[in-house]
Design brief:
By secondary structure, this protein is of the alpha+beta class. The protein is built from four helices and four strands, in the order βαααβαββ. It has a four-stranded mixed β-sheet, covered by helices on one side. Strand 2, helix 4 and strand 3 form a beta-alpha-beta unit.
Length: about 130
Amino acid sequence: MEERFIIPYPKTPAGKKQWTKTYGLNAYYAGKHWAQRKKDAEYWHTLTRYEMERQKVRKKPFEKPVIISFYWNDRLDCSNHAIMGKMIEDGIKGRIIQDDSRRWVKGIEHYFSDDDFIRVVIREMQEE
């Protein structure tokens, strides 16, 4: 089984550029204050939950472990999306996934895409 949803990027190129500068991993390496990191997490959790609700994403977590794939289209390096992926992952806990522990999330994948939004795909793993 699979579930997917999208998160739109800001509508203007300048907005998208500032957005990636604000939330990319480099901003965290630069020593972003803990209070701002907390606000960032709240922003991403709210955005993720809003989009899941708007797109009528499942409300019952998968009963098997999952792999989460993210598809990005911005100027960041692929690994620079790690913090955004983590905040999205936290936002889907209790709704699409049981928890973000290794029991329930067996892998995270980051890819580039040509779409003008972030695509999040959660795939339930088959029996081994």
